[in-house]
Structure formats: C-alpha cells, structure tokens
Design brief:
The strands form three sheets. This protein has a six-stranded parallel beta sheet with strand order 2-1-5-6-7-8. It starts with 6 loop residues before the first strand and ends with a helix. It is an alpha/beta fold. The chain has helices at about 20-35, 60-75, 100-105, 110-115, 120-135, 145-150, 195-200, 200-210, 225-235, 250-255, 270-280, 310-320, 325-330, 340-355; strands at about 5-10, 35-40, 45, 50, 80-85, 95, 135-140, 160, 185-190, 215-220, 240-245, 260, 285, 300-305.
Length: about 350
C-alpha cells in the first residue's frame, strides 16, 4: 500500500454561507499551517481532465454526482490524503460536521414521512453509510455527534475521534468596550444564526416575553424577518426586538450582551456559541446542541430541554444570575482555540498515515 504524502484533497461541494462554509475555510487554513498542500474541490470546477459534477439538478442528484466525481479523483491519486465534509465520498478522513442524517430526522419527528416522500433523505442516508464505512477516521465535532455515530454506525465506533471546533482568540476575546450605543441602558440578549426556525428564534422570543420590559433582543443573521416580526407582535415583544441582519462585527454584540440565546433544534456544535463564550458572553442553548457539553448548567450558561430547564426557568435564571463574570465564562472554552483544534488534527493525520503505511 502506498504512503500518503503532504498533498490533500478537501471536499466541500459548494461555496456558500453559514457555519459549514466557515468551517471549510478554517480547516483549509489550518491544514496549510501543517504544511499540507490543500486543493479544495467544489462542484462545477475542472480539475485536470475531470469536470467535477454536482452543481446542477435536484438536491439528491447533486449529492450523488459530486460524490462520484470526488471518488474518481481519490482513485486516480492514491498518494494524496483525502478529507471530506460531504457524504458519499470514500475519503481517508470524514468530518461529520452536519451530524448523522437519520438522527436529525428522528429529532424532528420526520423519519417515516420524509423517507417515504423525498428522495433526498434516503439518498443522504445511503451516501453517509458509504462514507462511514470507507473512512479510516471519522471526526465528530462534538461528543453528542460522536455518540450518535456510535449509535447508528456501531461498526465504525473505533474510528471516531472527537475534535471540537476552534475559535480565533485574536478576534474573539473579552472586551469591556461598548461600541453599540453607550447611552442605551437596556439589558441586551443576542440571537445569532441563519435559518431561524432550526436555530430557535421563536423560543428566543418566548424567553424575551418572560422577561421585564428593559430586556431587549438583537437578532443577527438571515431568516424570514416578516414572519418573525409577526410572531414577535403576537407575543407583544415587537418593540423590544431589533433585526440587524448579517453583521461584520459580531463580536461587538457578544461583548455588549448579557447572553447569547440559541435554542436550536439540532446543531452538531455551534460556532456562534463557542465564539460568544470566548468573548465572555454566557450561552443559553438546548441539549440538542453539541456545544451544550461545554456548559456547566446554571453556572456559566443555561441548557434548555426536557432534562434541563424550561423557558420560565431560564427567565428566572436570567433575572437572578446575569450578568456573569466574563472571565469565568471565557475560561470554560479556553482550551478550544484554533490552535487546539489544529493540534488534534495533526494527531489524526499521523494516525491515518500510520494505518496507510502498514
């Protein structure tokens, strides 16, 4: 068997916005610091004589076509290490950054109905199984996802390594500056994310309803603003909510908020939560977010869920415990920097190279 070299394919089907794209760019940069020559492969581009497919057609077909193209590249260059963020690719390393598809369906209570009527879901599950079986190492970005992989793919349990996302401490750190509105004396919460249904904006608005009028909520990111304005209106909190859209200086909101509220229905490991905590901003999220494992419930943050706290419990916690010490909150994630993440990947690459040379 040939020995893997220092050239790498990194497979990410499309360049888009959101946490997955941020992760892809971060990983390319990190791997280059480990002296890998990284070629990112996206659908629609030409690499050598191969036109990488997967940029056209219905969603399920794009997944299949992209995986087929990626597997051709891997087969043609056995000395190049392969790292995939996509399902269906027979890569050396698979990063399950989107979690386990069937687990996501079951959490939403959609497993039976959607598997029956939408080809995307059975295709995604089939492709995921192919990747899990082929990978020499499966990277889960939280203990929650690691446990799900072991539950749904027990034959792959020994291949799982947990490597949580890392944050950039040069950008996300404690600061006492107030660059929003120095004259505003409101007590502020912040919500940050795209796809507001999945991220739990309605639950964040319900929390605001349980708090006194001096509490305000800044909503960052993209979503159906008109719909959520109507929801805020129905909850009688519309005048206490500001929709800010996508912002370049998100850390400023973390510095000036008493908590990040992200009651997500499923999030393998939220970058927003990690970065907020690094800024000393406590996190309110659910037990369906992999980041929740880093929260000491009711001490440096709050976990919503059946086995944790309710919206009303959380409101009481906000009133009695906030604000928290920024230093105390930030200390809980001090070992989750980009440098920590890179070090863990260096160990994975060494392990995979060792397996390949046997």
């Amino acid at each position: 068997m040939s020995t893997l070299g220092k050239e790498m394919w990194l497979f990410r089907r499309e360049e888009a916005s959101g946490g997955a794209e941020i992760a892809a760019k971060r990983l390319v940069s990190q791997f280059e610091t480990l002296d890998y020559e990284v070629t990112r492969v996206t659908a629609g581009e030409r690499i050598g004589e191969l036109q990488v497919k997967g940029d056209r057609g219905p969603g399920w077909l794009r997944l299949v076509k992209y995986a087929n193209s990626a597997n051709r590249l891997i087969a043609e260059d056995s000395q190049r290490i392969s790292f995939s963020l996509e399902r269906g690719i027979k890569a050396d390393i698979y990063r399950a950054g989107e979690g386990v598809h069937l687990a996501w369906l079951k959490r939403k209570g959609l497993a039976k109905s959607l598997l029956s009527f939408r080809p995307l879901h059975p295709v995604a599950i089939t492709l995921e199984a192919i990747t899990m079986k082929a990978a020499k190492c499966i990277v889960a970005n939280s203990e929650m996802i690691g446990a799900e992989i072991k539950q749904y793919y027990p034959q792959c349990a020994e291949k799982v390594r947990v490597i949580e996302n890392g944050y950039d401490p040069s950008r996300f750190h404690i600061s006492d500056s107030n660059n929003l509105d120095p004259e505003d004396t409101a007590r502020r919460l912040v919500f940050a994310g795209n796809g507001w249904d999945r991220k739990g904006l309605e639950q964040a608005l319900q929390l605001l309803r349980h708090l006194p009028g001096e509490w305000k909520l800044d909503v960052l990111g993209k979503g159906d603003q008109s719909r959520f304005e109507m929801i805020a209106e129905s909850l009688k909190v519309r005048d206490r909510v500001k929709f800010k859209g996508s912002v370049a200086d998100i850390e400023t909101y973390y510095h000036n908020s008493e908590a990040l509220v992200l009651p997500t229905t499923y999030d393998p490991f939220s970058n927003a939560c990690l970065e907020a905590a690094a800024c000393g901003c406590p996190v309110i999220t659910t037990n369906q977010n992999g980041f929740a494992a880093l929260i000491d419930h009711r001490r440096n943050g709050f976990i919503l869920g059946e086995d944790a706290g309710s919206i009303s419990d959380c409101a009481e916690w906000c009133l009695t415990c906030l604000p928290l010490s920024k230093e105390f909150v930030a200390s809980g994630v001090s070992n989750y920097t980009i440098e920590d993440e890179t070090r863990k990947y260096r160990e994975v690459f060494a392990m995979v190279a060792g397996k390949d040379s046997r």
